[in-house]
Amino acid sequence: MKTDMPTQFSVSTTATPTPHDQIVASISNPAFGRVFTDHMATMRWTNTLGWHDAKVEPRRPFQIDPACAVLQYAQEIFEGMKAYRGEDGSISLFRPFENAKRFRASAARLSMADLPEALFVEAVESLVKVDRDWVPGGDGSLYLRPFMFASESFLGVRASHEYVFCVIACPVGPYFKAGKTSVAVWVSDQYTRAAPGGTGSAKCGGNYAASLIAQTEAAAKGCDQVVFLDAAEHKWIEEMGGMNLFFVMDDGSLTTPPLSGTILPGITRASIIELARREGIVVNETPYAFDAWRADAASGRVREVFACGTAAVVTAVGEVRHAAGEFQIGNGEEGPLTQRIRTQLTGIQRGKLADPLEWVYRID
Ligand SMILES: *Cc1c(COP(=O)(O)O)cnc(C)c1O
User: Is residue 168 located within the same domain as residue 211?
Assistant: First the structure.
C-alpha cells in the first residue's frame, strides 16, 4: 500500500554525521533506546496556524520554558513502530497507518491537536529516508518513536494551545536477552493500570508513569514484567505494562481480553487475531479471570501464554508469580503455537513470508 503525497518536510542534514564505521558498530550491537540516529522529524501546531514548520533536521535538545504545559500536566502521547530491512536491502514499515490512527485517538483523549494520518506517516517516512543507513538487517530493526507534547508556556489548567510533534529513531536488537525463551510475570494485586473512563486505551506517557511502581515491585519479585488486573474488581486479566496478552487453550483456541476501553489496542494484537482467524484458529476476545488462569494452568487447559507488542514482538510467559504463590505455564518454555505465530509475524514484517493482507509499507 502506498499513497502519493507531495513531500511537505524540508530536509536539513547534519554537518557532523556519525562516521559510517560507527553506524555499522551501533547497528550490529544495538542497546535498546540509548543510541539514536543523527536526525529527527519535527512539526509544530498552534491554534492560530495549525500544523506548520514540518522538517527533518539534525537531532538536538528542545529548548522549553519551565512553565511548559507538558512539564506541569503531562499532556503527552506517543507511538512505537519499527522500520525493517529486508534481505534485498529494501526498507519497510509495518501497518504505519494503524499507528497514525491510534495516535489520533490518543490525541483526542488527551485533548491534543489532531494530526492527519498522512502527515504522521510522512513524518516517519521522511526521517527513515534520511537515516536509512541506520536500519539494521538480520534480527534488528530501527525503532521509531513519534510523540507529541503540549508546548505552551502557561500554568492554567486547560488544553494547551501549542504542540510539538517529533519522531526520533534508534537501532534495536532483540528486546529480551539473547537465549531467553520466556519471561516471568508478576500479577499485581495492589496497583492497577487504568480504570473505566480513564486513559487506558490511549498511548500516553502518564499511563507508563503510573505503572512504574508495579514494574519495580515485579523486578523485586524476580519478574520481568507486570500483569495488571482490572481496577473495579481486581479479578479480570487486562494486559502488561506495555504488551497485550494471549492464552492458548488445550482445544487450540486463543483467548485475549477484549478492548473494553481500559487496555491499549495493540496493532500486534490485532494482527495476530487476523492471522489466526485466517488460519481457522478460534480467537475469543473475552474477559478471562486471574483465578481461572491459575486453575487452567494447573489443569493443563491453558497450554501457552504469550505477550505481544511492537518492541518485544511475541514473547512467551513461562512463569507467573502473585501475592499467594506462583505457577508455571506448560514446561515454562516457549510453546509451539507461540513460536509459530512469532515466526509468521516477523516473517511478514521482514519480507520473508507472503503478505496476504498488504501490511508491509515499502519505503523507496
Ligand atoms: C504500545 C502498547 C502495547 C502494544 O501495542 P503495539 O501496537 O502492538 O505495539 C500494549 N500495551 C500498552 C500499554 C502499550 O502502550
Answer: no
Give the side-chain half-sphere CA count within 13 A for 15: 0
- Full pLDDT tens readout for the chain, 364 residues: 344 444 589 999 999 999 999 999 888 887 778 899 999 999 999 999 999 999 999 999 999 999 999 999 999 999 999 999 998 999 999 999 999 999 999 999 999 999 999 999 999 999 999 999 999 998 899 999 999 999 999 999 999 999 999 999 999 987 666 667 899 999 999 999 999 999 999 999 999 999 999 999 999 999 999 999 999 999 999 999 899 999 999 999 999 999 999 999 999 999 999 999 999 999 999 999 999 999 999 999 999 999 999 998 999 999 999 999 999 999 999 999 999 999 999 999 999 999 999 999 999 8
Of all protein residues, the one whose alpha carbon is nearest to atom 14 of ligand 1 is: 242
Q: Mutate which of 203, 207, 308 to test ligand 1's pocket (most atoms within 8 Å of Cβ)? A: 203
71 shares a domain with 37: yes
Q: 68 and 157 share a domain?
A: yes
Domain range for 162: 10-172
Whether residues 306 and 256 share a domain: the answer is yes
219 & 118 share domain = no
Nearest to 230 by CA among 270, 255, 265, 257: 257
- Please report whether residue 364 resides in a domain: no
Q: Is residue 86 part of a domain?
A: yes
**363 beta partners:** 91
Q: Is residue 45 part of a domain?
A: yes
105 touches 94 (CB < 8 A)? no
Write the DSSP assignment of 215-267 as a string of letters.
Answer: HHHHHHTT-SEEEEEPTTTS-BEEEESS-EEEEEETTS-EEE----SSS---H
Is residue 199 in contact with ligand 1, taking CB distance under 6 Å? no
315 touches ligand 1 (CB under 6 Å): no
**Predicted TM-score (pTM) above 0.90:** yes
Q: How far apart are CA 97 and CA 92, in angstroms?
A: 13
243 CB within 6 A, ligand 1: yes
Ligand 1 pocket, residue 309 CB under 6 Å: yes
Task: Verify whether ligand 1 is closer than 6 Å to residue 200 (CB atom).
Answer: no
